Amino acid sequence: xxxxxxxxxxxxxxxxxxxxxxxxxxxxxxxxxxxxxxxxxxxxxxxxxxxxxxxxxxxxxxxxxxxxxxxxxxxxxxxxxxxxxxxxxxxxxxxxxxxxxxxxxxxxxxxxxxxxxxxxxxxxxxxx
Length: 128
What we know:
Blueprint: E1 10-20, E2 30-38, E3 63-65, E4 70-74, E5 79-84, E6 89-95, E7 107-109, E8 115-119, E9 122-126
Antiparallel strand pairs: 1-2, 3-4, 4-5, 5-6, 7-8, 8-9
């Protein structure tokens, strides 16, 4: 709701060795976007100002899963998403919370192969 954005919240894979103009401000240089995905959930709180607004990706870190060519990422909607990179699609999602009071949180894959994600100050263990 602040700044010059349009409510089109995206998650991205960036190349730090290539640059492009910032898609919102036009500032140069910023890291080049290789892949992006728009958030899947409309943001009802922003619809009046931005009719196509979507909820934010509430992450400090995402977890890269090289075995499935995917990235695991939390959303402000309370779900954990598996972003399959070869198809640039969400191949799975799992509701962790109702999406209320989400903070920027980490997600990781443990040595046991389990996925660990924090939403609403609760640590979730998935697949262990």
